[in-house]
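On clarity, I found the account of how folds are encoded harder to follow than it need be. What matters is that the chain and its backbone geometry are given together, residue for residue. I therefore recommend that a typical entry be quoted early in the introduction. An entry of this sort, consisting of the sequence and the corresponding backbone structure tokens, reads as follows:
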Amino acid sequence: MLTVEGVDLYYGASHTLRQVTMSARKGEVTCVLGRNGVGKTSLLRAIFGLNPIRSGTIRWEDKDISTLAPHDRARAGLALVPQGREIFPRLTVLENLMTAFAILPRSLRHIPDDICGLFPVLKDMLGRRGGDLSGGQQQQLAIARALVMRPRLLILDEPTEGIQPSIIKDIGRVIEKLAERGDMAILLVEQYFEFARDLASSYIVMQRGEVVLSGRQTDMDEAAVRTYLTV
């Protein structure tokens, strides 16, 4: 389980995260909702160690990881699929997947058999350069690359951004399957409300760097949540 307790984060003099508290459990999808610029991506970057926090604690599997470097958090089982995908455009699909080997022991440096099952479109594209893939295919590649790391906490930042509807459905099915396995916590930042609602076990809503709503999906007041999403 991931627990974030009372986290404050600053960019210079800008107080970006304000006493943020949340949790994410294995076997569940926890969604982070809110408008652009409210601190959702900053929260993910804090959890992964890309931005140091000023105060508070971040715990994963009963260990305080608040001061660990990002590569040490990756070795601890965290994997981030960043907004914008950030694949290597000149590397092939296979080479992009192999970049995830860096944090793995030698015995695990192979592509898991279920990757092509989850993303069958990639199976026939292993020799194609990442930059030649469509946006939806690149997003699937970015998620697959994270899964090669055998994560126990998968962090997804806006995976539906700029993706065609058919691919969004494919990505949703993959997230459902991963949650059903029960060995992975999934933290999903998303602006597409229906996509997030249908996947979520629990949720938080952010505004101006603070958590303003949270709870179980089954108890969600959709009207209240939507007031924090509309412009």
